[in-house]
């Protein structure tokens, strides 16, 4: 990559920052250069984010209709999936999937909810409040 | 102790090590730190899943650079993890109050200064703490242009985030960095190690074979699974470009190392190797563009064969280059 080929595509995924890349000048010498975005990379990032957001929206709908617990929606909102949430909370994935059911969630003890609260970085009270909403 | 100078880097771990060494009096560029630690690699790990996708790495695993570089340079590396987060905070404060720099491993997701779209659960990010003011830490995060500030609670959450590659508050610093180095021996040794990693492992998922394996996977994508293909191809691009690699999955950074090493030793053959790796890096970038083009295309039957072929071409060129570098590293010395 030559210095004048360093992409400056103003990608929103960079959040106004620039990344450092290595590129060669006209004499073939490596220089440090900043790039404020590369379109193909931004497309890849946005696709991954959109995928999570689509999962989140679907899970939010099920929660609002009272068909599911809020955990699945929150899991995607905080960019996790079942294996990752299992590792963070120390719960088996089959238990997590069970907790996605509204009637199971309603009866979860605070000690289990506290693990989810920590994983999402939310106050425990919020998760306890959702229990009452579902009741 | 002298005032700490923040310097932006492409990659977190090589950036932290370059800063630690430079601050200790051994001037070190990021590519030099990366090359001397033999950081370049390729691995396709289908067992390790990231949001359901295989892990594709263009470098050695986390902590490799830190350990290998301190060992090769003969510097004393202190590193500690903490079972008790509160103790981790106290030790960090004590180190900073004593005027030391502290390298820290942390999660990306819980660092509030990261742009929202970049915040994924990656626990092996590296940054330097160089001081504190009130309730805030002064942070030199290598991938950012400027030094950052981070509230104590946020940094604590990021250091002790659980999950894959959990940092457990890992904190590290260097002592006794020898300022005299036998550069010729160091460079040959580290280049030789890289040639073995990239083309000396009898494993189908590592190095050149790993690239060929990825090519086979791309060639065998089922055109009927349009959604999966899109996510798969863009996943490769993210592993190669999004996660601070300096472009082309560290190939440009390593080429910069070869050039700098060649100048240091006055050896033109390393300069030629650098130019060739730059050309290979350009092909990696074209490969990434082609992956994204195929993901975007609305046509019924996207053709993955040319993309796979370009990868096979890259693999053969990297193999040829590694053979030459191996011969160079073994010559005299």
TrEMBL record, chain A:
<protein>
    <submittedName>
        <fullName>Uncharacterized protein</fullName>
    </submittedName>
</protein>
UniProtKB/TrEMBL annotation, chain B:
<dbReference type="Pfam" id="PF16169">
    <property type="entry name" value="DUF4872"/>
</dbReference>
<dbReference type="InterPro" id="IPR026935">
    <property type="entry name" value="BtrH_N"/>
</dbReference>
<feature type="domain" description="DUF4872">
    <location>
        <begin position="153"/>
        <end position="325"/>
    </location>
</feature>
<feature type="domain" description="Butirosin biosynthesis protein H N-terminal">
    <location>
        <begin position="11"/>
        <end position="142"/>
    </location>
</feature>
<protein>
    <submittedName>
        <fullName>Butirosin biosynthesis protein H, N-terminal</fullName>
    </submittedName>
</protein>
<dbReference type="InterPro" id="IPR032369">
    <property type="entry name" value="DUF4872"/>
</dbReference>
<dbReference type="Pfam" id="PF14399">
    <property type="entry name" value="BtrH_N"/>
</dbReference>
